[in-house]
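Worked example 2:
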Amino acid sequence: MIKGMTGFGSAQFSAGKIKGTVEIKSFNHRYLDVTFYSPAGFSSIENKVRELVDKQVNRGKLTVSFRITHKPSAEVVLNRDVLRQYLKHARALKKDFPIKDELSISDLTQLPGVIEIKESSWEPEHAWPTLEQAFIRSLNGLTQMRIREGKSLSADIRRQAADMQSQIKLIEKRDKAILVVQRKQLTEEEYVSFQKSNDVNEELARLSHFIEELKGSLNGKGPSGKNIDFIAQEMQREANTIGSKLQDKIVTTAVIALKSKIEKIREQAQNIE
């Protein structure tokens, strides 16, 4: 089953009061190229994410990102023990020295260590089990979309291949008709020479073979885009040879139609993983 290279997958995650989303986008590319975006402090999980991607994706330009959409607000903490120590020393100062000023609440809260603001944190090593499942779900969604695209591409390539077979049959029929005419018009020696220089049986046979190879690639497992592109290149060579050997209007028209179908197959191969 072939896959396309265009896809999108997303998943939400939550861990306690922390919530976020994962998104993965993919587009056509000659190789596998992954760009990773994450919040500050999470770059350490990039290699783990790439390992997950490698298991499902072989080719394409991917943008992988995750963001935290909600986390608990910072917590304001009153350190009572620290405050008690300040008050203890303040009373000792007042007892030992003739100090009249009194400490206000404002004064107390501004003393170092009395009030502490604790930011909520989510360490990558603790976050990974939750994030891993979100990335897997997102990748699964991406893969399903690429599979659906692959089915559409496969159907189109099969249609092009079927049209090619029709053109091949037309050329075969026309080739036989040309030989019948030439046998009547040429001497035996001239006919043998003509038949030898204009023989396209090998090229037609190879074209038919490549169509079967093409079908095999469409039915196979794993990446096949590059293989399909190679097959189409070989088809193009055979079509060009046929066109150069048989200088006939009907054949020329059929060859042009063949090359048009082959070019469409090559274009679709660029979209296949």
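The longest strand covers residues 60-70. The chain is about 60% helix and 15% strand.
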